[in-house]
Design goal:
- The chain is of the alpha+beta class and about 200 residues long.
- The chain has a single domain, classed as SMI1/KNR4-like.
- It has six helices and ten strands.
- The protein has helices at about 5, 20-30, 40-45, 90-95, 155-160, 185-200; strands at about 10, 50-55, 55-60, 70-75, 75-80, 105-110, 120, 130-135, 145-150, 160-165.
- Helix 4 (about 90-95) packs across helix 6 (about 185-200).
- The protein is globular.
Length: about 200
């Protein structure tokens, strides 16, 4: 369904495949009250390990976040089922549980890092919208938004993907390849979360 759209970009799997975990992903999300739009479910079934873009890719959002370059928001990775935990949809949700309102689900990250995760609105009555989450926005701030709507639904997001100019590039210079998108701090936080879960069993 989405292979034709995404096939024009250089990509690789985001996670280590875990067939048993793939079978329980949707039930795990359902137990947490997460309602996934059909097109996003279809994406996870087609790309269960998620997807990493090995070039600068993004989308021109309905609104622009502070991280947009020439109006285009970066998308470096879509999360999925990852037995290593780094790119795992459920584990990343738990890591951000104390910060992110429950009606949003982190589904990806930009090349700029974890301060602007890509989120899917999963609240039953308003499910489907795709947002950039501004984690640096002070809570309750009137001067800076916390969520920037970039697409009305996941299918529209994928259909609008384009190659994105790099902040570090100049006219005539090739875009920088993205090889790492998660900071050591977030990596350590995820690993600490996994270790605490393992020790509590």
């Amino acid at each position: 369904m989405f292979q034709e759209i995404l096939g024009k970009f250089k990509t690789k799997d985001a996670g280590v495949r875990d067939y048993l975990k793939e079978g329980s992903l949707f039930s795990a999300l359902s137990r947490e009250g997460v309602v996934l739009p059909r097109e996003y479910e279809a994406f996870l079934l087609e790309f269960p390990q998620g997807l990493v873009f090995e070039e600068e890719v993004g989308v021109r959002g309905i609104t622009s976040s502070p991280w947009a370059v020439e109006g285009i928001e970066s998308i470096s990775v879509f999360l999925g089922c990852d037995s290593s935990g780094i790119n795992d949809l459920i584990k990343v949700r738990h890591v951000f549980a104390d910060e992110l309102p429950s009606e949003y689900l982190v589904i990806g990250f930009p090349s700029s890092g974890e301060n602007a995760p890509i989120c899917l609105r999963v609240e039953l009555e308003q499910a489907g919208g795709i947002y950039v989450w501004n984690r640096t926005s002070p809570k309750g701030s009137d001067s800076e938004e916390e969520f920037y709507l970039i697409s009305n639904d996941f299918s529209s997001l994928l259909s609008s993907l384009t190659r994105r100019p790099s902040r570090n590039s100049f006219p005539g210079q090739k875009p920088r390849l993205v090889s790492k998108y998660i900071s050591p701090e977030l990596d350590a936080k995820i690993r600490a979360h996994l270790a605490s879960k393992a020790s509590s069993k």
